[in-house]
Hints:
Layout: E1 9-10, H1 18-28, H2 34-42, E2 47-48, E3 52-57, E4 62-67, E5 70-71, H3 82-89, E6 97-102, E7 108-112, E8 121-124, E9 138-142, H4 145-151, H5 155-166
Antiparallel strand pairs: 1-2, 3-4, 5-6, 6-7, 7-8, 8-9
Amino acid sequence: MSEPTPLRMLKTASPLSEEELDRAEAKVGHEFPAAYRAFLLEHNGGRPSRQVFRFTDEIDEKDNSDMVEFFLYLQPTGHENFFEYNQIFQSRIPLDLLVIARTPGNDLVCLATKGSHKGKVFVWVRKHENEDDPWSPAFELAERFDAFLASLIDLQTYLKEAREKRK
């Protein structure tokens, strides 16, 4: 297996300052892990060049994959807006999670910033949404945000691996 291509971010917003990050944390009531802060200081959202991630869907009991369509921008208004997504989903996702990205099917990539899962990255699969248990559609992707970024696979590599697996 070859080394993954370096992760590049496309369509990013202007990087944030430390002061803007502090204000964003105060606004949402969550402290961002260091790796996510570093990402926002450099990129502030955007489309990753390596998009595919794998996870085990424990409800459907199968291995699955999806793609990061977009990491959300931390900006006051506009599309792919971090604040807007978190406001919309705050009563539907666990209180420990923040929405940081979305998939093409509008599932959510979330970052735990509180509680026993602090620092971990999850995919929140909307088809499994359960009002009685907001954690039920959340499947762990990585222990840390930087590990999640490192785990992303470019689409061509993913498709090549899938073809080879079928042989």
